[in-house]
Give the backbone structure.
Amino acid sequence: MIGQAPLKIEEEAAMTPNYLSINKDAWNADAANWVDFAKNHWALEAPVWGTWGNTEAELHLLPEDMTGLEAIELGCGTGYVSGWMDRRSAQVTAIDISREQLATARAIAKEHGADITFLEGNAEATGLPDASFDFAISEYGASIWCAPDKWLREAWRLLRPGGRLVFLGNHPLSLICSPVDGSPAEWTLHRPYREMWGADWTKVAFEPTGVCFNLTISSWMDLFADIGFAVTKYQELYAPEDQMGTRAAIPADWAKSYPVEQVWHLRKPE
Ligand SMILES: C[S@@+](CC[C@H](N)C(=O)[O-])C[C@H]1O[C@@H](n2cnc3c(N)ncnc32)[C@H](O)[C@@H]1O
């Protein structure tokens, strides 16, 4: 069965010029709904990732020992990833555009005695010095809410030669199977893959949010090559078999059959 006719890419792209303020407002308004999730994640003994809780033991997104590493989280939200890096003895900076999300992050970091420098700002243009970090990470932060061409170039600038960037976001397949009204993903192609740029979720009928970005896999690869990043690993994530229900508009059964999330591991050459 064919779903609703997909919007033309140009029509969607034309809706997004003010995505930074749209996303900031959306996250300030939604921040209170993420406090419990944040407390739970900060308190975990070992990290779990993404919407479906895949474990760090399987994925290895963080260096095990981060002693002596300067790390930055781009679009840190409630800061639990930064908390995990602090626990691994990294010196951590975390930037987010939402004052309310940062208020949650700062309050929980204080409860945990974490020593993290939180900054309010745009991860596409941090204002931080060149080559000041060894490791950068984004889990559903800049990785989906920032324009890829902008935040990836900024991450490159911030990293030292040999530095690593790891980022997690939605798999492109989950976007093309998502109806344009924001209702849960189906076993149907709802949007074109060709020329994918992301989606404007601000005016959808089901749970409106902000403007998110994604690219086809070949476009991600072309962009990394253009910037100079080497891809060291690419992971496609599925929901663990014991997961049920629907999360972030994706049914668990869908996410067990198709890759729901992707993780790119990049390296800035020496
Ligand atoms: C899903 S949350 C971050 C994920 C984090 N792991 C968490 O769950 O707390 C997304 C965050 O991206 C932030 N964000 C969106 N656009 C941003 C931008 N241009 N610069 C920095 N942060 C941004 C939002 O304010 C929000 O806090």
About this structure: DSSP finds eleven helices and 13 strands in the chain.
